Input
Amino acid sequence: MGIQHICILGGGTAGWMTAAALSHKLQKSGISIGLVESEQIGTVGVGEATLPHIRYFNRALGINEAEFMKATNATFKLGIEFCDWGRVGDSYIHPFGDFGKPVRNIEFYHYWNRLRLSGHDVGLDEYSYAVMAAEHGKFHLPDSDTKKIESTFSYAYQFDSSLYADFLRAFAEHRGVKRTEGRVIEVQQDNATGHITRLKLDSGEYIAGDLFIDCSGFRGLLIEQKLSAGYEDWSEWLPCNRAIAVPCEASGKPLPYTRATARKVGWQWRIPLQHRTGNGYVYCSEFVSDDVARETLLGSLEGNILAEPNRLYFKTGRRKKFWDKNVVAVGLSAGFLEPLESTSIHLIQEGITALVELFPNGHANDLDMEEYNLRMELQFERVRDFLLLHYVATQRDDSDMWRYFRNMSLPDSLRSKIEAWLSRGLVPAYERGVFLPPSWIAVFTGQNLLPRGYDPRANLLSRSRISDMAHILRRTVRETISRAPDHSDFIRSYGAAIPELVSGSP
Amino acid sequence: MDKPVKDILICGGGLAAWITAAALSRALPDEVSLTVLDIPDTDKFDMLYGTVTAPAAYGFFLEIGLSEPDLLRLTHTAFSFGTHYMQWGSPSRSWVQCHHLPFPARDNVPFVHYFTGRTDARLEDFLVSAQAGLRGVFAHPPEQARIPLSRAEYGYLFSPIELCNALKSVVSSRNITVKAHEIRCVRTNETGIFGIETADEKNLQADLFIDCSGPDAKLLTALNTAFTPEREVRASWQCLPSAPPWPPLRNVHGSDRGWTAGTSVRGQKITFQISDTDSEHHKSGRNILFGKREKAWVGNCVATGHAASVIDPVSPAPMMLLQRDVERLLGLIPLSEDMTVEAREYNRRFESDFEHANLFNQALYAIDDAPDTPFWQQAQSRGDKLRRKISQFENRGIPVAFDMESFNEEDWSILHFGMGRKIKNRNFFAELADTRDIDSNLAKLKQSIAQTVLKMPPHHVYISKLIAYLERKNVGRA
Output
């Protein structure tokens, strides 16, 4: 006898993503899946941005892209624009895509570095199809012909995460997931094993389970409040601990990218959905008061607010054990990293993927848990280093917060990565982790960390040849983009537009 | 910027030296001068690079300017679908450790799980490279994905001495200075090496010194870089003429005292034997220490090949590591006399490449009922990563992979199955899958592999025809 009943606690994005994935994967297994959530009051359409990996998640469930986009007010996302990070007034886009293509097995950016060090002043982003398409508000699906420049990017979505949860709820309920409305008032454990046996709801009803997925949010009702799995606090590196979020009217056509603007304390996001814009301000309570934060956010919106601002409190870090006894934490209960690079939903997805791959036939054992925990640890840690890079790769020192980052002693892995880049444009790579070298290069160059030297293999071609090659690449990017469709037009022609967008513009 | 790196001196005369020279001469612009100090006798341990490569060698050789036609023309190299381990640790343990592209997966069920708990089907029956290897046939895998042979991958069976000579001749047309002398002394100061005095009393200087002097690591040793030994064995080898057929597999026979590898290149059979150091029967061999240098890059001196590490040639690990050393160096050619960043990155990746390649070798020896003899007992090791690899496979057939491993997931699956490791808990999704459907698919696959293999020519026939064709078309150098 193995797992017969899975109980998912919490019905946010994490809960319904887990329910949808498990109900799909386990459909022939005879395992029943239940989800307990308490009705939320006034769910607000705050936008949420994602990473390209989510497309594989949806595809694996057989979800139709246009239908899903229509149901979640989704727009396409080619990357994130970072404003005021390196210096006030700067901006750059971290794209889902490459910078040019390798020549003679040497990445294009090495040649660019050589040109730059000899006086060429064209930014690396002009060689990125994704960046240029984003800047011009253009979008189409990547071309499958890898020889074409239109193939050198990927994309994700910007959507209303509560609508995504609703969409997946319908999907999951259709596949037999039983939803129970209620608040947990008591958690019961087996005396001998410490495993959780059942949850008592405020209605008096009991929900039993063999495996519990804790999607109860930051407090970790099961994993922490009951099992005390422990939390590894990363506030020392990522001190922001509060956010305030609010949707507002859009001021123009939706852009195919998210924006993250650095503030004196913390940063502000702007996520364009089809008919409105999600906004939020992430800050550190030690450096700014809640009232000032609220004013900062409300004072910089592009349109009228559409709901009361929503406050969030958190502590960056990760659960010491993501899987403990018969509880697996997915979502905020597993850890929190500020959404600067849209990794929240991605880390949920990684958690679900690992759970499915390791899904126990029979009872789970210590080895299952160990493997799950090691994999998730690595994912969280690698995201942390990449987020931290944004704060430390900067020339800003105009507030206590920025000075705090200036004086910080970095994790060794990050410090040596920065040194390798600065000395010769080298990006020590890894395979297991979300952000690959092009992402690091985008942030380095975008925040004015420019190498002093370049890979000597870039000397194999003459400077004039490299210059010609770069010129042609840049022209090809520009010309191809001039023919590409406008982002909103593409959403409409793709059949993914909601009524407001269909009628919204010519 | 400070003084740029203009002079590079490669010290050594064996395979590592010439592979490094071939790679650098292709990757560096003419302004950088390249000198090889061809030290006599530094090739005497080259046979420890093994006589087999993994599939990655094809692209690497091409990159350094040695195309496959050239390789076939200049040496007696043959093709390899893998290694056939026989009587490995016990009389009944034998399997083909073949090279294969990713296995097919159906309905969420990884291919390897079709074999869990079955006694009537073995993984290697469904791997075209294993079956072709066992039958002694070969053909280049085609690109069309529908043909079963397209899933096969191949490496090479080669003589390290011949490969070294082939590289020498390839490099001879390039702009490299060669000097043949013994080293009399390596002059060092606190920043590294400032000169190498040769037997003819010349003092050679360079901005970067590359230590390719073999296991002695004459340069790194002069810089007081310690060698961390793992274990000591006795090794011997010989080459004898041999007539076809030549199997497209290296054979490795295990015995209580060690193992014997047989590699048939065209017209020759290379036999390589390893045992424990006390073996009475193996007096002719030389004692070899497996292990690695604490650091492979110190100051202005970097080591490739045996000067950096000596790893057990029981698998293609030695050639994989040599390739990694050279590739790592190519990406880290220093820009100035301050090589701190380059050294740190080289050493970090060296450490990890060695560890990961060595894991595979250690997994080959990780047998619970291994013979109770010095050789097998000394070869046992159970670090954390190895334990994780094996225990996760045995638990639920989960592949554990680390960053940038040379051996891929298929290599590991074939290894685990070949060694008879059992998956204790059947995969959840395999349990749900329709067994009749799986059986019929497996039967079809097996049949199409059998048909493919029947149509393939014997390895030696294929090679002779290929060489005749290349000569006719005048492919490769004249």
Remarks:
- The radius of gyration of chain A is 23 Å.
- The CA atoms of residues 169 and 474 of chain A lie 45 Å apart.
